[in-house]
């Protein structure tokens, strides 16, 4: 691997320095006489100044925080590395900066550091520097802050602080952020940390991480796309689901087995009534469905999830039901969690396969469930054989992996089987969970399976795809979903979807639902609820049978299905090159300032330009068309626009602004005609008595 020369020059005061382009310079700077290290890595728009609030960096023990403020006592440098050391009481503290390939490494450590609890440092930030990454939620804190009315924070994290500790339920994290200064920084390991992007100090990024040592990688390139690719490949490669996973999905939250369908027709079908209703109605409307998943409760027991045994009252003839779906080319997936209940709970405790559960949380009482220790190989094997593999052998095609963050303890006194504390494992637990399920799915189905996971951390993308947790249903919830999609793409989670309509749906609005259907079409995973066991033909607000929503669903489900090969192609590209499927404009057009500011507009693959609308009442939508290309209006292919301008697009409730790069081979067909056809079809209410009779 190519090594880059690093030239070291020691200066004091504010002396100028000159050296080779690849250099590190150490100096005392400013009136505070604070020790700093200048990192002039390749491709940076301006050099990075490594320096904290009170010194170069700090480490912390139970006795307090110690800042490094003086000249190093020993320095060692080579063509590709620099090591500085300081004596502090009974330990030697060191800093190493080294280059390897296209990356630079920064390490802080001590030769007697078992009692060190935390490390911290700072990096300078220019006035207009842009930061994004770290997690899918818009802002830190309670998840509802991300869809709070009036929220302004979008993709840019400047002015925000973030705790790097996975929180429910928007739970995709990774300690990687991208800077418009042509670098990305990734912190290795799984210990919790904290970022402060110019919130405390307006010209400084402050970074703190727990653990006995600190190690970070700086990726640099002359464009942000390459930096994102470097990181994705380093922590991946990302999983490529089968093509059927890029077909539209349908789900409900409770799946009651009722005596009548939504319209009062008596149920005579032998399977779960709501599942049958969905399949028959979607077939009647011509709404494609490639995946149907069932959430909890689906099994026996107080939580509807005991012993991986079907609840025969809710899901009669479950195995035959799977065959019935298979005959219709519909894959079936199940909700699972990393805890067990029923008889399996007792076995897990007796055999030492569980760890103490933080709780009660998420409606789960630790007295009636056992959290599996996925660092214990025997526990993994037992759980795999008696859980996921048992269901996979029945024909289940994959799983929705829920609940891997809020029940895991956060303390240092709880130890897992591999010797690590719960504090260190907390962020890693979702990775171990996904890896364990991935092993089972691959064992039973080869590569023909799909997993959809709520929580993730470094390495998760090798094993699973993701959805955006329990997002709220107001218009700001859709806003949060747009940000989550784009952030997830930047931090290495390319295959992602959201609960269309939101999960918490007490105030679901039909216009927001329509906009979400359109946005969800251009997510790699399009999964349609809504949660309250509803459908556009059985809404709990007027009109209950919503012809317009049915038509809109049909349009975007058919578009999404038509794009399945396209989506799969770009998932393969994400696996091989690290380039995400969904691309914020700045990944392709970093030199255009408007590409950084228009966060609602993004590329789906290389050819399709989408501008998501989240606010109610929008009839004219303003969006940026990137310069250097001509853009064809997908709704009116005769209209071609020069890039490099902001335009206003007529956007009635059914229409999402959509453009194709001129010269691209991608075609979307006559979308306006598809909508008009869909309206005509939705006006003819299907007769479930006839549909059921024909199906059974």
From TrEMBL:
- Name-wise, this protein is Alpha-D-xyloside xylohydrolase
Q: State the Gene Ontology BP annotations.
A: carbohydrate metabolic process
CDD domains in the cross-refs:
GH31_N (cd14752)
All copies of domain Glycosyl hydrolase family 31 C-terminal, residue ranges: 578-664
* Coiled-coil segments on the chain, per record: none
Which InterPro entries does its entry note?
A: Gal_mutarotase_sf_dom, GH, Glyco_hydro_31_C, Glyco_hydro_31_TIM, Glyco_hydro_b, Glycosyl_Hydrolase_31
Write down a Pfam family by its short name.
Glyco_hydro_31_3rd
Gene3D superfamilies in the record? Glycosidases (3.20.20.80), glycosyl hydrolase (family 31) (2.60.40.1760), Golgi alpha-mannosidase II (2.60.40.1180)
What the entry lists under PANTHER family is as follows: HYDROLASE, PUTATIVE (AFU_ORTHOLOGUE AFUA_1G03140)-RELATED (PTHR43863), MALTASE-GLUCOAMYLASE (PTHR43863:SF2)
Instruction: Give start and end of each Glycoside hydrolase family 31 TIM barrel domain.
Output: 240-567
Q: Give the similarity note.
A: Belongs to the glycosyl hydrolase 31 family.
Q: From what superkingdom does this record's organism come?
A: Bacteria
A Gene Ontology molecular function term of the record: carbohydrate binding
Alphabetically ordered keywords of this record:
Glycosidase, Hydrolase
